[in-house]
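Last lecture ended with a question: if I hand you only a sequence, what can you say about the shape of the protein? Today we answer it with a concrete record. The protein is Type I restriction enzyme R protein N-terminal domain-containing protein. Below, first the input exactly as provided, then the predicted structure, then a couple of comments.
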Amino acid sequence: MDRDEIDEYVDRCRGLIEASPQMDEENTKVKLIQPFLELLGWDLYSTEVALEYNVPMASGSTHVDYALLVGDSPVVFVEAKPVRSTLSDDEVRQLRSYMRQELDVDWGILTNGKSFEVLTKDRRRNGGEEMSVLQFSLEDLNERPGVLELLTKESIRSGKSAEIAEQVAETNRTIRYLSENESTVTDSVASAVTDEVGELPIDLQAQSREFVQGLVSLLREQRQFVGETESELAAADSPPTTDDEIDVSGETGSTDGPDNRRLEPIKNHIAGTIRRGDIDGDPDSTVAVFPTRESGLSFLKENEAWGFVRVGREFDYVAMYVTGGVRQVKYIAEVERVVSPEQADLMREPLEYKNRGAIADDKKVIIFKPGSLYELEDPVPYETRYPQALRYTTLGELRTAETTDDML
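The predicted structure:
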């Protein structure tokens, strides 16, 4: 897809939403959602797009806002909600029920013009049950335009979308299995290593558990690149060469940060500045390094916390690598506890920071010890390595690193 067209669409929609944040459903459809369908290659002024498409139900019939057709058969249902609303689980269930009534409808899109959830049918397993395959926001399209490839008319008609969906389904099943059977898989890994090399002078059980948790995190990270082209995936695995750094701290994936919109911090809890060599603590202490856009720093500053992330092990400190034009490990804080979003005493409601899809059940908020959040006087500059997702280092390596390559 043309990057300039996507950027133009995002900028136009952002301006419309800022000018009319309480936009009703009809205006949302005309100004935001219909241009989105056109961006995907669907011709609104042809028979391939049907408005208010009739869906037969057991209790009568209802209508879905848009049906996208190939020939005479609908293949995608699109359900629209007003900008001022938040996408809910009830609305996802409603769209699933619509998709269930049409055998050829493999895809569903639920959107309010700024948040998007994509459903597909798992044809190979679970009796074709509808599953959520992708969630993204309008803001994500600037950073990851490749997600739209999944939904283009060309991809759906060619079958490419179905192939991608199957890969995501397999990844989801693997993640679910490893998460639900973590102890069993950990024991198997530890036993396999012992059988091959014998007893080792380390806590093999702990190392095996960390391996399994790391594998789950890696699968989640890879899943967020759904729909992107091979060249984009290759770029994601390579160090950035310009200021257009690949930033995976957006809506989808294991490193979601509260940075999907720009908010002025209500308070600023940064205690001051500190040199890395003056940070107290054991040099072997574990430091979790998270990436964030500059816009995510509002959450950090006003809550003295970092949020809506998945964590797989215990750590003592959090360091923040700021992407974009900054490209430095710039902030450090000591961890007090890790809690669920509901248990975190945030300055705003979670949905003011992130849409519903980004606040999954297994995501946490990391609360810092009061007064421990500092801006580094000597931030660690980027060289060739940077945290595309959560990475771990030690306090000793952070203190002495000349560049990010020395600590990642």
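Comments.
1. The chain has three domains: 1-157, 168-233, 270-404.
2. The first strand starts at residue 49 and ends at 57.
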